[in-house]
Specification:
The chain has 15 helices and 25 strands. It is of the alpha+beta class and about 475 residues long. Helix 2 links the parallel strand 2 and strand 3. It is globular, with a radius of gyration of 22 Å.
Length: about 475
Amino acid sequence: MKVLLVGDGAREHAMAEALANSAEGYRVFALSSYVNPGIREAVLRTGGDYVTGNINSRDEVKRAISRFNPDFGVIGPEDPLFYGVADEFRANGIPVVGPNKAAAEIERSKVWMRSLMWKYNIEGRLRYKAFSSIEEASKFILEYQGSVAVKPSEQVGGKGVKVVADIQAYLSKEKRRALSKSVNEIGSLVKNEIKIIIEERVDGPEYTLHVLTDGQTFLPLPLAQDYKHAYQDGIGPETGGMGSISGPGHLLPFINQEEYQGTLDIIKKTADAIRTEAGESYKGFISGQMMLTELWGPTVIEFYSRMGDPETTAIIPRIDSDFGYLLQLTAEEKLSKATLSVKEEGAVVKAVAPLGYPLRRDLATGKEIQLDLKAMRERGCNVYFGSIAYEGGKLITRGSRALELVSLGEFQEASNRLDGCVKMISANTELVFRRDIGKSLRDQIEKAEIVRYSYRNRIKRDALGVSADWAPNGGLW
């Protein structure tokens, strides 16, 4: 069978490798905006073909479908979904892993997502206000007395989120004044009329549950946690993700089976609500970016309409089942036939980026990287290629996270192993990565225990989701 993969990052490399390694004997074809070395290897190994072009263009996707005549498709990133690329596959009679444009709105628009959760009374929802006026949003921040999170109203690659908490009252005015000044910057990231969404602030350990669905069957994957901030100990600007962890088993050390099941229930209810609103079943990945909070327990921060990156490179290597075949079953709406076997051992992922990422991508672009893949694999590290192009036999950076290194095993040992493997990478620039990923989870475990005690008390008092200073319909009193 022939499969057409759309996308060009480390997530898509991991998917291409899984397809190439499948016992089903797939021939892998790819459409990317540049030649990813890892995807290229999978394409060549399986006798497929590779074309470059605009992955968000339905016309270019249609040409690739006509050229390759695939049996099914897999769409990796979110932007092609927002532009209706999955619709193009289905319009040409090709089953595909990825929701249609209408269903992908669950990720593209935070306002639509929040309003949907309130309309259908889905657990784990946060109260919010949406603003098309930057001035009105700034005024609200200065006047409202509670803790808030301020976000761009649509998906902008993980950028722009600001949080203010009133832990020290005497800092309140200064914090709010600084946050209100950030609203212009956040609003400038958004193209739509509604610019800003302000949500009630919650706190707790974060995690992600990715679920494959063909519209009827739901197949939950192992949990993962993304490390979004650029620098050690969770400081610095937010990025697309500087690393991740997954495991052991289906869980994480700070999330229990009951919370896993509660999260899955939220995702299922959301998919059902999308089907009602969009008029069609949700097919593909639907992923809950969650936080364990005292307000609800499992609480939705946002949804993905695809697999997260770098969570993907922590999850797929831990799956013993034929992941490529799971993708085929999803595309063909036969997921009820699937079985999922997961390694008990965990995984740690560390992203490596050129100096300049994420704030000065111009400085991080056009650098040459060299690495000893064989030696790294012998040491217990696998490598997935991200924002790096194969050009004239060289590996040239494109301004974002260039490599994602993954190692399986106990978290501390795997993290140390990755640090050693990073030393096997050379470049004509400084490389940046986080050493702390996976090395100390004690704080998160302790925080989860505190949060768990609090939300269980709310359950006893029938007070889940109750917040005194926010109105029950999602707005303010």
